[in-house]
UniProtKB/TrEMBL annotation:
<protein>
    <submittedName>
        <fullName>Predicted protein</fullName>
    </submittedName>
</protein>
<feature type="compositionally biased region" description="Acidic residues">
    <location>
        <begin position="192"/>
        <end position="202"/>
    </location>
</feature>
<dbReference type="GO" id="GO:0007034">
    <property type="term" value="P:vacuolar transport"/>
</dbReference>
<feature type="region of interest" description="Disordered">
    <location>
        <begin position="180"/>
        <end position="213"/>
    </location>
</feature>
<dbReference type="InterPro" id="IPR005024">
    <property type="entry name" value="Snf7_fam"/>
</dbReference>
<dbReference type="Pfam" id="PF03357">
    <property type="entry name" value="Snf7"/>
</dbReference>
Length: 213
């Protein structure tokens, strides 16, 4: 115990304020991570399209599987962000009760959210330390790490890969089709260029269809 701890022990309200600050900081990190993944997703989809055009169907499938895993990572970030916001709201409620009851009240919901957030590798250390503080402050019970969800994640991805790859490729194809709309009002030279691209896109469509089959 440090010298400052001897003279000043943090009150439950001060602890709740610190937890909220830490969680809000992590929420901002989540937002940056989600935006980064979304930008990368655009690049990967363009790479898949180019691979199919070049006849590199096997490589396109491999990259499409990586895109699926990336999307799952984004989904987990979004879920974790929602859980963080939920804990922040519950901490606000706890502070209100604290002023009436004089102590933090145990919360099964907070404990559940903290346990889920610890499944994200980048957050494990932060959430573990915060959960220990919450336990000492009487907000949650003793926590036990539950990491089994990650053990089967890769297997689940592989089992559903063919169907999901087909959906990814179909999505790319639909986006390609949408860019062709309205080309009839363009100048003649550009129309000719578009017609050449149409032939290329027809070939792309055939390749995508063969991949999906």
């Amino acid at each position: 115990m440090g010298l400052m701890d001897i003279f000043h022990k943090k009150t439950p309200e001060e602890l709740a304020k610190e937890w909220k600050k830490g969680l809000k900081s992590e929420v901002r990190n989540m937002d940056r991570g989600i935006r980064k993944i979304e930008m990368e997703e655009i690049k990967v989809k363009n790479n898949i399209k180019m691979m199919v055009k070049k006849g590199q169907e096997d490589n396109a499938k491999i990259v499409a599987r990586e895109l699926i895993k990336t999307r799952k990572a984004k989904e987990r970030l979004i879920r974790t962000k929602a859980q963080m916001n939920s804990v922040i709201l519950q901490l606000d409620q706890q502070v209100q009760q604290l002023r009436v009851m004089g102590a933090l009240q145990k919360s099964a919901d907070v404990m559940k959210c903290m346990n889920e957030m610890m499944k994200l590798p980048d957050l494990q250390a932060t959430m573990r330390n915060m959960s220990k503080e919450m336990e000492k402050a009487g907000l949650i019970e003793e926590m036990v790490d539950d990491m089994m969800e990650d053990v089967f994640e890769d297997e689940d991805v592989e089992e559903a890969a063919d169907e999901e790859v087909s959906e990814v490729l179909n999505e790319i194809l639909e986006n390609v089709k949408s860019t062709r709309v309205g080309s009839s009002k363009l100048p003649q030279k550009q129309v000719e260029e578009e017609e050449e691209e149409d032939e290329s896109e027809l070939e792309l469509q055939k390749r995508l269809s063969s991949l999906r089959n």
